[in-house]
């Protein structure tokens, strides 16, 4: 079996959520220890890693980042190498991202280029976010890349396709948690209570009016409530309810406006339903904004020097804390076609493993080009 596919399957079996990636870190370290060590230096950062592959005569440092965490999803693929961790799955392709990173890293250990290449194995991309703190860490500051690259699997594109664009690629995100507290009581005496299930249902519907009535139709935003909890049992009126969701916007300014409207609606719920409401925005990610000159150069390189199909795509409302790295370091992220019938964050996501070699070929070739360029 292709060793990178074996790595992907091993990692697929042990998904761990943000900052719990202990087995993943141990697996990565054990693979790295199996490589010739002359050019490798390794630093741990929380549950992540930074790995430098020293160049022959380094003048600059090229960065390559992969995320390493999984999601709290129960896998339903039926694959023989399904997750062995209950209610955990690599349903966003980070097992692919890591195998590709290890493939690229191994290539440069065996075929060093002039410049240094630093590999960033970053925890907690799905939440609460690892990129911003990792970027600020002394460990990363010491090996700060001059340019940085990353990819994300794209189930909707065929293998052999890369989709990318200059400028905005992924949205600004903010998590959204709203706790409602009213007065519970007997199911038969609603007039003596303030029912938080009713308040929560009303609020979920009102939140969608922020998108349809307050956001410029030519701009774009998303509010998704992915989870509602409330109440205790079928014949007790709920004293408490909690909404958990996420907000996506195409600019930081729109994020401010959307939040302002959410706060006004939540105040209205407090008055209308005589309850208390607390909003917590959880973690926020800065948009992924690809450096224009590097993206042009990358597209040009792919079109002239490789047989991959390059699509210039539109921006997406997905979020990625790699946006924080691109805010400080020039570089880009791109979509890698993996043609799965089920999409990202789905329990049946089954990306095509043939895409791993495509990505390794593209990234080793492009990084060699950049790292040998005068
Ligand atoms: C690529 C991808 O799917 N990223 C996640 C990032 C989640 C950020 C945060 N937990 C949130 O939900 O706002 C995404 O859901 O887009």
UniProtKB/TrEMBL annotation:
Enzyme kind, highest EC tier: hydrolase
Xref: Gene3D superfamilies: 3.30.70.360, Zn peptidases
Pathway in which this enzyme or protein is active: Amino-acid biosynthesis; L-lysine biosynthesis via DAP pathway; LL-2,6-diaminopimelate from (S)-tetrahydrodipicolinate (acetylase route): step 3/3
MF terms in GO: metal ion binding; N-acetyldiaminopimelate deacetylase activity
Needed co-factor(s): Mn(2+)
UniProt cofactor note: The Mn(2+) ion enhances activity.
TM annotation in the entry: none
Entry similarity comment: Belongs to the peptidase M20A family. N-acetyldiaminopimelate deacetylase subfamily.
Biological function: Catalyzes the conversion of N-acetyl-diaminopimelate to diaminopimelate and acetate.
Protein known as: N-acetyldiaminopimelate deacetylase
Organism (species): Neobacillus novalis
């Amino acid at each position: 079996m292709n060793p990178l596919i074996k790595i992907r399957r091993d990692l697929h079996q042990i998904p761990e959520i943000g900052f719990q990636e202990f087995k993943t870190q141990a697996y990565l370290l054990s693979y790295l220890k199996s490589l010739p060590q002359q050019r490798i230096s390794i630093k741990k950062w929380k549950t992540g890693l930074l790995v430098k592959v020293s160049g022959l005569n380094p003048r600059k440092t090229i960065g390559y980042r992969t995320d390493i965490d999984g999601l709290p999803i129960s896998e339903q693929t039926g694959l023989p190498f399904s997750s062995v961790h209950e209610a955990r799955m690599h349903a966003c392709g980070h097992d692919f991202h890591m195998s590709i990173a290890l493939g690229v890293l191994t290539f440069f250990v065996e075929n060093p280029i002039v410049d240094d290449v630093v590999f960033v194995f970053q925890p907690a991309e799905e939440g609460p976010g690892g990129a911003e703190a990792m970027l600020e860490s002394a460990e990363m500051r010491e090996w700060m890349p001059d340019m940085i690259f990353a990819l994300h699997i794209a189930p909707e594109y065929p293998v052999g396709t890369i989709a990318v664009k200059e400028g905005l690629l992924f949205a600004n995100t903010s998590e959204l948690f709203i706790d409602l507290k009213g007065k519970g009581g007997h199911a038969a005496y609603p007039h003596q209570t303030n029912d938080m299930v009713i308040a929560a249902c009303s609020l979920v519907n009102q939140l969608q009016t922020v998108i349809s009535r307050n956001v410029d139709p030519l701009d774009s935003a998303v509010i998704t409530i992915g989870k509602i909890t409330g109440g205790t049992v079928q014949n007790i009126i709920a004293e408490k309810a909690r909404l958990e969701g996420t907000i996506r916007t195409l600019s930081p300014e729109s994020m401010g406006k959307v939040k302002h409207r959410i706060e006004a609606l939540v105040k209205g719920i407090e008055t209308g339903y005589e309850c208390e409401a607390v909003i917590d925005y959880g973690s926020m990610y800065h948009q992924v904004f690809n450096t224009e000159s590097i993206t042009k150069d990358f597209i040009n390189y792919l079109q002239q020097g490789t047989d991959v199909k390059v699509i210039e795509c539109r921006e997406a409302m997905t979020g990625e804390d790699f946006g924080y790295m691109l805010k400080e370091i020039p570089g880009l992220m791109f979509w890698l076609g993996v043609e799965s019938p089920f999409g990202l964050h789905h329990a049946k996501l089954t990306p095509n493993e043939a895409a791993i070699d495509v990505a390794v070929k593209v990234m080793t070739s492009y990084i060699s080009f950049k790292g040998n360029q005068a």
